[in-house]
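for the recovery benchmark. tokens below, seq after
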């Protein structure tokens, strides 16, 4: 299974970015916009924006560490960071201030802008329905982690990116195995 490292700073600032632009953003809306942004960035550039692991839940793909953060169940450091940029009141998510865009690459910002232009006019229910049509959600086990390799389903134009990620993952596993053998 392909994994990435969760970046709380990028997650919080992406939430602030989307909640600043989306009128009356909810956790569901934010989670779907982040899913589409992470997926699009992964397909084009070989990595997601936030690095969060998505799970197949009844309302669609959910960024697990990020959802814990939005629910106030993350580490003190991550909660403190979130409290600087966003406010969560029940299901509503509001930006307290502009996001710190310096945490993002140019490609991160470009993809977030594209995702907002494409999906930012849709209701939470419509975004949920769209996410349920995603092969990565359909093929994942219910209540289980979604393998990032599934994000490439129905995207033959991105097959070279997937091969690169998989070869880097295999090389990392070999290095770790050699290291463990010497310890």
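predicted aa per position
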């Amino acid at each position: 299974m392909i994994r990435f490292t969760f970046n709380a700073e990028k997650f919080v600032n992406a939430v602030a970015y989307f909640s600043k632009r989306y009128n009356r953003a909810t956790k569901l809306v934010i989670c779907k916009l982040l899913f589409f942004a992470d997926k699009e960035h992964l397909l084009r550039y070989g990595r997601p924006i936030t690095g969060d692991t998505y799970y197949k839940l009844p309302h669609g793909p959910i960024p697990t560490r990020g959802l814990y953060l939005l629910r106030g169940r993350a580490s003190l450091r991550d909660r403190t960071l979130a409290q600087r940029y966003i406010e969560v009141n029940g299901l509503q998510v509001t930006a307290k201030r502009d996001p710190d865009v310096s945490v993002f690459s140019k490609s991160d910002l470009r993809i977030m802008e594209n995702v907002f232009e494409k999906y930012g006019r849709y209701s939470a229910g419509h975004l949920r329905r769209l996410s349920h049509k995603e092969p990565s959600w359909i093929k994942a086990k219910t209540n289980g982690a979604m393998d990032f390799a599934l994000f490439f389903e129905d995207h033959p134009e991105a097959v070279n990116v997937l091969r690169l990620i998989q070869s880097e993952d295999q090389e990392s596993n070999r290095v770790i195995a050699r290291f463990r053998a010497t310890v």
